[in-house]
């Protein structure tokens, strides 16, 4: 028994020793990482490596002791004219946002003032009618006084509203926004196609200032006259003058030789006789209607205010007050709800567009020298696009105009298909 215990003790000891030996053998000490400090390469070695990688045979000579402050500064490719044109571009972009915001504000003026004045007028007419229905004493005085005050307030508000014409103001700002966006695109195109010159900067500056003058933002002192003596087209471009210069005949795209100058003169003649004349006639008509309505509204509310002051002294006073108040509300709704002022401005802008077309074609004929056929074709395409026509339709229009001179008849077609 003792021998068995001794043998088992020896066996366990040997196992313990072997296990401990095995465990110790499995434990490993971690190795410390190797740190490599980057050694700065000389500029010469770096350039040589780049030359070898790119397959270059020549090397760029650099001095070993070259310092960063001794290197030549990088020159900007932007010229002085381009920098000025970018400055004008930023100003034009700001004006687009300004005219857009003010246009929305003035459109809200038209809606709010129209609703407010109509509610005041109808309320005053109702009070005058109630006061005439057998009311006596203090209630009669209260209703009469309130009706008179409301009619007087409506008269004053109508005088201001008819003077500034909010619907026309909103249309002016919409047109200004569109024209400033057009100028913005023209400047961007100039910067993208070629290096701008001082002449480009001067032209962009003149166009910006001309637009500012044509569509002013403030109301006091600079507002466009809403009721001029004569209807005049809008002018938003600078006046240019130059020495007359003829250009060469060009070869048309259809293969037939033609005189582009004669074609453009015929198109200009159609614009003058048909489009410009028609929009001037419509503009004069809209201006006369707007003048009549602008006078009638405050006049009717003034008559209603006078009639309401005598309510209770006769049946005629209440009839005058209620009838004049109802008519004033109708006139006001037709004038400002129908936005007659906006219609006048729309005709003024359209007439200005055709005037600009006439001047542009005449100036191009006098000043531009089309030495290449591509210039003539580009000019013809621009005119066709502005009139909403294709090149073949534009040539047919010029042909019809020329034949009408020989026949002694009048052409029954407008030059523009857009308006």
Automatic annotation (TrEMBL):
The chain crosses the membrane at residues 112-133, 140-161. Keywords: Membrane, Transmembrane, Transmembrane helix. The keyword tRNA-binding does not apply. InterPro entries: Chloroplast_duf. Pfam families: Chloroplast_duf. The keyword Transmembrane helix applies. It comes from the Eukaryota. This is Probable F-box protein At4g22030. It comes from Populus euphratica.
């Amino acid at each position: 028994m003792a021998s068995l215990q001794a043998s088992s003790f020896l066996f366990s000891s040997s196992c313990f020793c072997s296990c401990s030996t095995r465990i110790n053998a499995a434990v490993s000490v971690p190795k410390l990482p190797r740190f490599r400090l980057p050694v700065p390469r000389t500029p010469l070695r770096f350039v040589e490596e780049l030359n070898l990688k790119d397959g270059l045979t020549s090397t760029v000579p650099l001095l070993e002791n070259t310092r960063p402050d001794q290197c030549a500064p990088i020159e900007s490719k932007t010229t002085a004219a381009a920098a000025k044109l970018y400055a004008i571009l930023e100003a034009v972009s700001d004006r687009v946002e300004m005219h857009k915001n003010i246009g929305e504000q003035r459109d809200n003026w038209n809606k709010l003032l129209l609703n407010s004045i109509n509610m005041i007028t109808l309320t005053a007419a109702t009070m005058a009618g109630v006061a005439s229905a057998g009311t006596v004493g203090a209630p009669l005085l209260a209703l009469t006084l309130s009706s008179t005050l409301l009619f007087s307030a409506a008269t004053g508000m109508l005088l201001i509203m008819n003077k500034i014409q909010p619907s026309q103001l909103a249309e002016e700002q919409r047109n200004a926004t569109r024209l400033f966006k057009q100028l913005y695109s023209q400047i961007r195109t100039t910067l993208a196609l070629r290096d701008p010159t001082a002449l480009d900067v001067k032209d962009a500056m003149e166009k910006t200032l001309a637009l500012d003058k044509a569509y002013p933002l403030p109301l006091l002192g600079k507002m466009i006259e809403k009721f001029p003596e004569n209807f005049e087209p809008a002018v938003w471009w600078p006046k240019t003058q130059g020495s007359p210069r003829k250009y060469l005949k060009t070869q048309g795209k259809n293969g037939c030789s033609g005189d582009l100058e004669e074609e453009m003169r015929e198109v200009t003649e159609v614009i003058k006789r048909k489009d410009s004349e028609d929009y001037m006639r419509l503009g004069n008509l809209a201006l006369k209607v707007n003048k009549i309505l602008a006078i009638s509204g405050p006049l009717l509310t003034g008559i209603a205010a006078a009639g309401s002051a005598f309510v209770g002294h006769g049946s005629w006073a209440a009839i005058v007050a209620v009838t004049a108040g109802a008519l004033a509300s109708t006139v006001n709704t037709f004038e400002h709800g129908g936005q007659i002022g906006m219609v006048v401005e729309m005709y003024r802008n359209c007439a200005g567009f055709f005037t600009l077309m006439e001047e542009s074609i005449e100036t191009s004929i006098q000043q531009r020298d089309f030495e290449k056929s591509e210039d003539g074709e580009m000019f013809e395409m621009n005119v066709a696009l502005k009139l909403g026509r294709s090149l073949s339709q534009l040539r047919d229009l010029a042909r019809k105009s020329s034949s009408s001179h020989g026949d002694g008849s009048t052409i029954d077609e407008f030059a523009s298909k857009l308006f």
